[in-house]
Amino acid sequence: MKHILLILAAALMLSIGCGSKQSNKQMDMKDKKALVVYFSHAGENYAVGNIPVGNTKVIAEYISELTGADMYEITTHKYDSMSYKTCCDVAQEEQINDERPPFEGKIVPGAKNKEQARIIDNPTQADFDNYDVVFIGGPVWWGTYPQVMFSFFDTYDLNGKVICPFTTHEGSGLGNCVGDVRANYPHADMKKGFSIYGHNVGNGKAEVEQWLKELGF
Question: CATH no. for residue 188?
Answer without folding.
Answer: 3.40.50.360
